[in-house]
């Protein structure tokens, strides 16, 4: 597997475009379109929130029922959530307009929205945006980058990753982009991910690979513990790499999963590190757990702890809060067996041995915790399973971003 | 039932004392003692954290195995958590010293600690403090108030409540104090509650009443979602009211439970409103739920949502975040049936009807949300069960308090 510079246009046959449709922001692009020159198999995973945005309900149906998909239309600014039948109708209108402009079937179009909830989409603006984008689709690196920028809300950086691998003598590419940081005014964190590949792979295995991988990637990050109404990851495969179609769990499938995992992990980490107000990416590795499931619960418990996140902001080696968060995770363990190490680009330091603090240097610990990416490694010493979760620090700016009155 | 001005010395036969033992703070009291002139039945509830502080382990044993209890010794400054066998030994030493000074059995003494975890107690200072307090025990209102002050850490107000009720022609009193706000340096939130009563009641019913009541009171508050290693509620009953002993679930038991519930609810609300950095008490009532269990899960989900808490700090009627938090609670419901009302001393305003915003005034909503205590009432319109949870807003000061480096 090889990491390359690229985004959603890196795989063969994928084009992208973006435009400033004026949905809510001024002086910036706020719509993106991804298009494949040939029909794709589509897989998707969606929010588990009982309150589901209209595009989530719409895409679930398309991914399940459509034979193939060829385009995705995304807008930032308005989430089209809690908008009732009117909001669902706008998903249909968006798909219909894109289908007409691109000369494809209406059920070959997926839609996604992020932004304010409770507001209705200005559908004429979206339709005008679709007209513009359909004419400007391009397979360039720049087109992919502009699309990744157009879907940002409170994100401070655009998020793209691409990799290639070999399958049956052919080069297969997987490229993705996502957005996610928190909400824009007034609302909740929305995480959207779009991963494109030119791999030839059966629809069943495509969905299976995605469903399995999100559990180890997107589902292991947390900015604020608030699960959005709009969370969506879409994975489109158009087969243009011309590798022998992956229809069973062979070596090519394993390589595809590895590439998908890399792309998903990297963009998930970018989201965590770019969490609202964050100054640091906070990685928590739990090793020596009894099972992977327990390791995941333990690592997520630490990464979601407000007290631990505030300590990371303060560059404070506050091991008690980490031990506490492990303790209330719901997983049984012997506290007197736990070891804890902090790690970053500045070095590594052991803090706890057998549940009790060792004689470490607070200054050295603070130096290590002052990097933009820090890792806590907790060894439960009760098995061989491990898992990693990613989050960010809790800062004044998180409160500021989310307390400011809607204007 | 009648609310009276009082704390732990309000019930007959209970005395209190406090002192500045110099455990960690300067120029303030940091130890408290509660003593009953006659033996008490004791009940207790303790943290569910796998990592349990030494006094939690110690008290569990005493509450379960001792025939009677007569004193409680509490210190602030050091939590005696993650301190191994040495820390557990200090619980024994504390009890032994108090027993000698008070001339009671060693297993008639309960201990509690709150503060920094990972540090060992300066046992000589505690022993000196016990000597002083044993001589200064008093049944005055002021002694109870000073004891409530001595157990504070980052608390900004002391927390006491007392009520009386009639049983069998006798006046029974229930009086309590607690501490809880967040942590002191470097560590986690510790919630300690001490409720005294002169009721005559069997040990079994005393524990049953307490265990049932904490589920609706202390367990329904959240400041930051971090369950401490030290959480403890102790309930002592010395029978000096001379009411006919409550040995079955009769009308007197019902009245006792009502009084206990009032005391626990009020001090729990004080803790939530005095959460670290908080500027407002945030109450969430869920009504019209299918079951009480579901109503509790729904209300706690909202009260724990960082996004909602930040919005409350901003006086922002951000209904989308509340609907979102209800949605990810794990309870199934129809979002299109939900109604939402905000309420405070400044008035009441309906925000959502059938899952969609009504045409309300943002200015009026902000006015209502600018009070020091605000309530959100969510009607799920799917049953008759209800529950209330209490929390606070998320503020810059919460981050400041918890990010500041340990000094």
Q: What is the element layout, followed by pairings?
A:
2 copies of one chain form a homodimer.
Chain A: E1 2-4, E2 14-19, E3 31-46, H1 54-65, E4 69-78, H2 84-102, E5 109-116, H3 123-136, H4 141-150, E6 159-167, E7 170-179, E8 192-197, H5 203-216, E9 232-237, H6 251-273, E10 281-289, H7 292-303, H8 306-313, H9 319-327, E11 339-344, E12 347-353, E13 356-357, H10 362-368, E14 373-379, E15 385-392, H11 396-403
Helix pairs in contact in A: 1-2, 2-3, 5-6, 7-9
Function (chains A, B): Catalyzes two activities which are involved in the cyclic version of arginine biosynthesis: the synthesis of N-acetylglutamate from glutamate and acetyl-CoA as the acetyl donor, and of ornithine by transacetylation between N(2)-acetylornithine and glutamate.
Pathway (chains A, B): Amino-acid biosynthesis; L-arginine biosynthesis; L-ornithine and N-acetyl-L-glutamate from L-glutamate and N(2)-acetyl-L-ornithine (cyclic): step 1/1; Amino-acid biosynthesis; L-arginine biosynthesis; N(2)-acetyl-L-ornithine from L-glutamate: step 1/4
Subunit structure (chains A, B): Heterotetramer of two alpha and two beta chains.
